[in-house]
Amino acid sequence: MTEHPGSTAAPSDIRSALLQRFRVGEEKPFHLSDYDPADTAGLPLDKAQGKALLKIAKKRLFELQELLYANGTTSLLIVLQGMDAAGKDGTIKHVMSGVNPQGVSVTSFKQPGPQELLHGFLWRIHINAPAAGRIVIFNRSQYEDVLVTRVHPELLDREHLPGDVGTPAFWKGRFEDIRHFEHYLSRQGTLILKFFLHISREEQRNRLLARLDDHDKRWKFSGSDVKEREFWDQYQHAYEEAIGHTSRPYAPWFVVPANHKWFARLTVLETIIGTLEKLAQKPPVMDPAFSHSLDTWRAQLGEEKE
């Protein structure tokens, strides 16, 4: 177990602390107010040390992803949710930089189009679920349909739904549908990790201002980001409901403090690593006859003249 210079905490110790601290359980009511967006889990790390640990984590993730791809029996679905400017894109960039792109893909779910609205809300989600051996990252996900539509129920008018919509029974049904869908995926061999990048309202304001002040980043800014801030409290309630109703052992939620970008990225990466390590996967065992044929080809190539 390699320790990071200047820190008394080893990576495995950090991983264990993060997994336990931010995982949402089923045994008690869930409240976002119980989680501090500026929390760093009391780890003896500064920003520079955190970034150094990120490099270690990326190398380990690469090794585990290679085993996942080689064995081809399990897949991993990573769901990223958060308010605007919470750091989803930056987190994806850091996760992607630690893996082989051949076995990983990212799907970003925008507002559903006309064809998608003719189907159930999970239709476009299911067709983008990961195949065996692959990692898929959802930048936003099925949860938009219990978040955005919860805050703006008028959007449900486009979904060709029968009966009364927007009622407590309606939302309860959607939570059940999501749980059943995720349980189905888990039974098919898909590991599911769901991360809510938790920032404070003031931190979001600062990040939006930074985008406007940096002309090279103004393209990231959208007027809708400011408009949606007016519904901050409604979104916090919607997230509490969604997370509380759908965090299960087969598809756990992690509330990741995201005011410090380096800490959020480290938390996500270490959680992924901890989950993949539990698989205890090893390189596939090669068929002896096939292995012998490879030796033959090796010998033949070695005898060729340059």
Q: What is the overall number of helices?
A: 12
* Sequence stretches where pLDDT stays below 50 over 5 or more residues: 1-8
Number of domains: 1
Q: How many runs of DSSP E, i.e. beta strands?
A: 5
Average residue-wise pLDDT: 90
Biggest sheet overview: 5 strands, parallel
By CATH, the superfamily comes out as P-loop containing nucleotide triphosphate hydrolases
Which CATH architecture?
Answer: 3-Layer(aba) Sandwich
Rg from Cα: 22 Å
Strand content: 5-15%
End-to-end Cα distance, whole Å, is: 44 Å
Question: What structural class should be given to the helix and strand makeup?
Answer: alpha/beta
CATH topology: Rossmann fold
Gross morphology is globular
Provide the helix percentage: 40-55%
Strand order of the largest sheet: 2-3-1-4-5
State the CATH class: Alpha Beta
What pattern of helices and strands is seen along the backbone? HHEHEHHEHHEHHHEHH
List the helices and strands and how they pair.
Layout: H1 11-22, H2 47-71, E1 75-82, H3 88-96, E2 104-108, H4 114-117, H5 123-126, E3 135-139, H6 148-151, H7 168-187, E4 190-198, H8 201-213, H9 223-229, H10 232-246, E5 253-257, H11 261-277, H12 288-303
Parallel strand pairs: 1-3, 1-4, 2-3, 4-5
What does this structure look like?
- Pfam families: PPK2 (PF03976).
- This is Polyphosphate kinase 2 family protein.
- Belongs to the polyphosphate kinase 2 (PPK2) family. Class I subfamily.
- 48% of the residues lie in helices and 10% in strands.
- The chain is built from twelve helices and five strands.
- It has helices at residues 11-22, 47-71, 88-96, 114-117, 123-126, 148-151, 168-187, 201-213, 223-229, 232-246, 261-277, 288-303; strands at residues 75-82, 104-108, 135-139, 190-198, 253-257.
- The longest helix has 25 residues, at 47-71.
- Mean pLDDT is 90; it is low at 1-8.
